[in-house]
Q: What sequence folds into this?
């Protein structure tokens, strides 16, 4: 037993994960009064304000739509990449991964210059005789930025599950009378489901808490929950409320992931 | 209508890298036949099977199924089913749903599916396994599921690609008998691929011996064993002593420094030939009565018999199989009856 090998990480985890988590819980459930620090649910009451509920709703909506688009684009690509007779596999995979090597902020700033009123897209529209379009600072721009940044996280897990599916299983399905569509529906999709689940998780979780994309491409109008939390800590200095928001976001994410996995398990059982 | 269910006419298959898997293969398969494609790995036997199944397109030639050319028919429209080498079961489905897969695709009524799957599972001795996960089954059980999954669709022809290759010896023997019984009971044509010559001999109605994409011999197991057409077949089917010889005249051949009577005729005078003698056909004789004498160099116990190697004075090393024990270092005499000597034309090496 080389238990001591895990000690460095254990120390790390306690210092930078466990303690901060406890601090968030502490700040969320307390407030400063004249008589010192007391237990309070005031911060959570504040969240029930329709203004904040709306932001929560919007965050989940944008994350969900982005995730869905990633899935709709990513699944067919993964399917195509994993097919046996496709020879330039590594080139394409490279192209998918390369953007991930660039800084996340840079990538998003790049979209800012592309979409702005005097950016390439508007110049092109003008050139073609159409009027300018206000791309930036819209829900669409935020979704676009999210999809762009997180698409590889959808493709790669699905791809890595698909390449492991035995070619002969597909042959077997064809042999038993399944046409291409039935092979996809009855064999490929069920067998690639674990990849889909982890793809969804890896896109949805960062998307729901992003604040950079929404600030750069959404401006002030499309503040997401991440922006509000950032504000509480950096501008308002209201750590208690910021912590409460973080806490609620975390619980919501945990709940949605739980449903996700439960679905997978149910799906598996009903299929099996 | 011919009585052949499948005919392969002048089939050649050249892969993209230039590898010739099949070279002008002609094969006619009768209805209800148990036909085995036998050969060493890379001989083209699996390619032949995949061409019949529709997973591989022949470069040349035509595939005729019940009198109709089916070259362009995709696998899912062919009336054949396959048992794959590594079973290729659907791991996301249980035993019942694996077996029912083909029937569901063909939109068979639910009650009938239930009935036919139950029947099939009985046939392969897996009753009560319906709800089990395929991954929790043993290799032999998975193999049975794969067989049931193919047979439940009542195909005209069942293709089996080394189906018993992954099983242990005992299980393999049992499954050989069961498969043969199933084939006789159901009256389905079986096309069976294996590299195991014993398996081929014990199960088949006829055997096709392939080497490097070329058919060497098509015949019944008994004829293949007793009358191998060339030295390759003789060597591949069972063990053989293959000796260079010269045909002196009809029924007389010279090899290992002796003129030996045989029963073969029709060779040119002084034609170079391969002389093939089965190890069990060599009799051990008194030194004075023997055609050859030699020194025993090794004796290996094989259960029923001993494998004995003997080096004769001309330097040839003989393999003998005999139930009587011999001793290393002893000099023994050997003789072969004329009808146990098989004379074969030399395969011309290119």
A:
């Amino acid at each position: 037993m080389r238990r001591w090998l895990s000690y460095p990480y254990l120390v790390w985890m306690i210092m930078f994960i466990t303690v901060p988590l406890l601090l968030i819980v502490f700040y969320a459930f307390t407030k400063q009064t004249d008589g010192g620090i007391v237990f309070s649910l005031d911060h959570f009451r504040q969240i029930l304000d329709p203004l904040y509920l709306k932001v929560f709703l919007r965050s989940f909506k944008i994350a969900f739509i982005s995730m869905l688009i990633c899935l709709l684009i990513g699944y067919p690509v993964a399917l195509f990449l994993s097919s046996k007779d496709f020879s330039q596999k590594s080139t394409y995979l490279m192209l998918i991964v390369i953007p991930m090597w660039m800084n996340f902020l840079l990538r998003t700033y790049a979209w800012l210059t592309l979409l702005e009123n005097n950016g390439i897209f508007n110049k092109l529209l003008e050139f073609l005789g159409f009027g300018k379009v206000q791309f930036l600072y819209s829900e669409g721009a935020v979704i676009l930025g999210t999809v762009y940044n997180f698409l590889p996280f959808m493709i790669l897990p699905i791809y890595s599950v698909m390449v492991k599916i035995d070619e002969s299983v597909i042959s077997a399905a064809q042999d038993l009378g399944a046409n291409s569509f039935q092979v996809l529906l009855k064999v490929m999709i069920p067998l690639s489901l674990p990849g889909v689940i982890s793809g969804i998780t890896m896109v949805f979780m960062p998307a729901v808490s992003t604040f950079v994309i929404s600030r750069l491409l959404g401006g002030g109008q499309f503040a997401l929950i991440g922006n509000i939390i950032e504000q509480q800590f950096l501008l308002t200095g209201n750590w208690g409320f910021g912590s409460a928001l973080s806490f609620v976001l975390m619980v919501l994410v945990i709940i949605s992931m739980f449903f996700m996995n439960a679905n997978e398990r149910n799906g598996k059982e009903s299929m099996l | 209508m011919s009585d052949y269910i499948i005919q392969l006419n002048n089939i050649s298959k050249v892969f993209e890298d230039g590898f010739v898997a099949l070279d002008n293969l002609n094969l006619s398969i009768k209805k209800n036949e148990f036909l085995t494609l036998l050969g060493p790995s890379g001989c083209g036997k699996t390619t032949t099977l995949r061409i019949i199944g529709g997973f591989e397109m022949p470069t040349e030639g035509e595939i005729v199924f019940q009198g109709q050319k089916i070259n362009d028919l995709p696998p899912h429209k062919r009336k054949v089913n396959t048992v794959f080498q590594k079973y290729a079961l659907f791991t996301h489905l249980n035993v019942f749903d694996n077996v029912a897969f083909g029937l569901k695709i063909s939109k068979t009524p639910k009650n009938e599916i239930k009935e036919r799957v139950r029947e099939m599972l009985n046939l392969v001795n897996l009753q009560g396994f319906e709800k089990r996960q395929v991954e929790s089954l043993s290799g032999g059980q998975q193999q049975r599921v794969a067989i049931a999954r193919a047979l439940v669709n009542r195909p005209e022809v069942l293709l089996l690609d080394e189906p018993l290759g992954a099983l242990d010896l005992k299980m393999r023997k049992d499954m050989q008998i069961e498969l043969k019984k199933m084939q006789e009971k159901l009256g389905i044509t079986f096309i069976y691929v294996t590299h195991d010559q014993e398996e081929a001999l014990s199960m088949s109605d006829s055997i096709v011996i392939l080497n490097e994409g070329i058919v060497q011999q098509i015949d019944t197991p008994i004829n293949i064993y007793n009358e191998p057409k060339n030295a390759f077949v003789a060597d591949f089917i069972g063990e053989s002593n293959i000796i260079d010889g010269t045909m002196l005249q009809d029924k007389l051949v010279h090899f290992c420094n002796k003129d030996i009577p045989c029963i073969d005729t029709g060779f040119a005078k002084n034609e170079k030939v391969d002389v093939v003698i089965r190890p069990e056909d060599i009799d051990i004789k008194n030194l004075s009565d023997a055609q050859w004498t030699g020194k025993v160099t090794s004796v290996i116990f094989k259960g029923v018999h001993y494998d004995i190697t003997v080096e004769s004075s001309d330097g040839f090393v003989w393999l003998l199989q005999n139930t009587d024990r011999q001793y290393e270092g002893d000099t023994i005499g050997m003789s072969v009856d004329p009808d146990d000597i098989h004379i074969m034309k030399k395969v011309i090496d290119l």
Summary: Strands of chain A lie at 30-33, 36-39. Chain A touches chain B at residues 166, 168-169, 171-179, 182, 186-187, 190-191, 193, 268, 271-272 (CB under 8 Å). Chain A has one domain: 42-271.
